[in-house]
């Protein structure tokens, strides 16, 4: 457990540090409230032991600031124990009112200090588990279970934000809609499980084309999402016209060259995709129109024989 000990008396800080270190805890010391607030952000402690009277900034003020920092984060609550000189009812009430969780007197007997720290270590372990679970839940809520791509919900949220940023700066913006050709026939002929494998492979191929463009800095923050059944979308904020075309043609070629047999995709014999796109040189329109344009072009690509992109 990492403890941030906030104590202006060097002698007291030294004594407490030795005692806490002897229980196996990692101790970092701040000599006043202001230093504690800065150190809190650096150290991310599991527990704060906070003196009350200190120069520069007292313990109550520092606690209020730490709680304000935590309020800007998704989930955070670091236990704060006040270190007081006397064990009075007023001290307890003031400590809790100030955002603290408890208090201990500085002269606390060894066994009591050790027992309190044990209880705090349990809370620290629980917080860690909660924070890991929270992160996993967040990840799962934004991913499509079958393909691992971002899901429609995450795409919609990100898209609204990216579009309003692009509109406020008049930046370029591109959207691609991609659909596997004759996928119903693929399912009917090869079975639904094979269909799932095909969806996963196409999704990975699409993601790697988009990732390559990001890593070559042709795009910045472009990402692919599963939009629905066998339909995918690629969002390309800040994309140039060249990057837009490169991703569209790149993914069609990459999927076709996988050579996944598709007897019922008569013209090609392998799994292919069709793409419709919309490129806006300076975002100013309604996002809905961008979607509509990409969708209409996707239908045009299908009508023109599939395995192709219609981009304008
Ligand atoms: N295996 C599998 N199939 C899916 C999944 N989601 C949607 N599908 C199938 O995708 C097929 C989509 O069929 P259609 O919308 O008719 O499109 P299509 O057959 O690809 O025809 P075109 O788009 O015109 O080339 C349907 O058979 C759906 O059952 C999935 O998660 N797994």
UniProtKB/TrEMBL annotation:
Keywords of the record: Phosphoprotein
Residues that bear 4-aspartylphosphate: 51
Residue ranges of every copy of the Response regulatory domain listed in the record: 2-121
GO molecular function: diguanylate cyclase activity
The enzyme's E.C. designation: 2.7.7.65
An annotated GO cellular component: plasma membrane
InterPro entries per UniProt: CheY-like_superfamily, Diguanylate_Cyclase, GGDEF_dom, Nucleotide_cyclase, Rev_trsase/Diguanyl_cyclase, Sig_transdc_resp-reg_receiver
Reactions accelerated catalytically: 2 GTP = 3',3'-c-di-GMP + 2 diphosphate
Residues that span the membrane, as ranges: none
Enzyme's top EC category: transferase
GO terms (BP aspect): cell adhesion involved in single-species biofilm formation; negative regulation of bacterial-type flagellum-dependent cell motility; phosphorelay signal transduction system
Domain GGDEF: 171-312
Protein name, UniProt field: diguanylate cyclase
Native source organism of the sequence: Methyloversatilis universalis (strain ATCC BAA-1314 / DSM 25237 / JCM 13912 / CCUG 52030 / FAM5)
Phylogenetic lineage: Bacteria, Pseudomonadati, Pseudomonadota, Betaproteobacteria, Nitrosomonadales
């Amino acid at each position: 457990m990492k403890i941030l000990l906030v104590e202006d008396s060097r002698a007291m800080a030294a004594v407490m540090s030795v005692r806490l270190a002897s229980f196996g805890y990692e101790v970092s010391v701040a000599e006043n409230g202001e230093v504690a607030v800065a150190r809190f952000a650096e150290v991310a402690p599991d527990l704060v032991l906070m003196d009350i009277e200190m120069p520069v900034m007292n313990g109550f003020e520092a606690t209020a600031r730490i709680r304000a920092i935590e309020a800007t984060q998704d989930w955070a609550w670091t236990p704060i124990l006040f270190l007081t000189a006397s064990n009075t009812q007023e001290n307890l009430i003031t400590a809790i009112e100030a955002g603290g969780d408890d208090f201990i007197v500085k002269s606390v007997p060894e066994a009591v200090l050790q027992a309190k720290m044990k209880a705090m270590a349990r809370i620290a372990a629980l917080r860690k588990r909660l924070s890991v679970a929270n992160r996993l839940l967040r990840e799962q809520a934004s991913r499509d279970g079958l393909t691992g791509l971002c899901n429609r919900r995450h795409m919609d949220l990100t898209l609204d934000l990216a579009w309003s940023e692009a509109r406020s700066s008049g930046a370029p913006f591109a959207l691609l809609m991609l659909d596997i050709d004759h996928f119903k026939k693929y399912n009917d002929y090869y079975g639904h499980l094979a269909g799932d494998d095909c969806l996963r492979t196409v999704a990975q191929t699409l993601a790697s084309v988009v990732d390559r463009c990001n890593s070559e800095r042709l795009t910045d923050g472009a990402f692919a999402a599963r939009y629905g059944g066998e339909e995918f979308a690629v969002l390309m904020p800040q994309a140039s016209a060249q990057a837009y075309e490169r991703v569209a043609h790149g993914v069609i070629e990459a999927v076709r060259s996988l050579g996944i047999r598709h007897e019922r995709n008569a013209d090609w014999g392998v799994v292919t995709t069709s793409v419709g796109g919309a490129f806006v040189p300076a975002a100013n329109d309604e996002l809905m129109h961008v979607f509509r344009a990409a969708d209409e072009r996707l239908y045009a690509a299908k009508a023109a024989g599939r395995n192709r992109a219609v981009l304008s």
